[in-house]
Amino acid sequence: MHPLLIPSILLIAGLYFLTRNIKFLRDSAELESYLATSPKGKLWVGKYGLEKTTELAKKYFLPLGIIIALAMVGSSSWSLYHIIPNYL
User: Fold this and answer.
1) What's 1's DSSP letter?
2) What would the pLDDT profile of 61-77 be if each residue is shown by its tens digit?
């Protein structure tokens, strides 16, 4: 397996989750739409209701997701920074 593959996938996934979580944190209507259509969201909405689930997501889960996405982007960028000079 090529050494650039895993860090590249991790970088792309981290950027995707980072932009998605920021979009949901900024736009409540988009978050509520996601919670109403996602299988996991439906489970939480059924258990706690839409208002409480949206509040929990904005207060805990989205900021945690942003931190994890930043860690993914940072670690993959660091890894690529150290791997790429070996191939040039």
Assistant:
1) -
2) 999 999 999 999 999 99
* Single-letter residue type at 62: L
- Residue 25, amino acid: L
Report yes or no: 68 and 16 within 8 Å, Cβ to Cβ.
Answer: no
Identity of the residue numbered 24: F
SS (H, E, C) the chain: CCCCHHHHHHHHHHHHHHHHHHHHHHCHHHHHHHHHHCHHHHHHHHHHCHHHHHHHHHHHHHHHHHHHHHHHHHHHHHHHHHHHHHHC
Supply 54's token pair. Answer: 């949206």
**Burial of residue 81, with CB atoms counted within 10 A of its CB: 0-12 exposed, 13-18 middle, 19 or more buried:** exposed
**Which amino acid is present at 88?**
L
Q: How far is CA 1 from CA 4, 6, 70, 85, 87, in A?
A: 9, 9, 25, 18, 15
Q: What is the pTM of this model?
A: 0.90
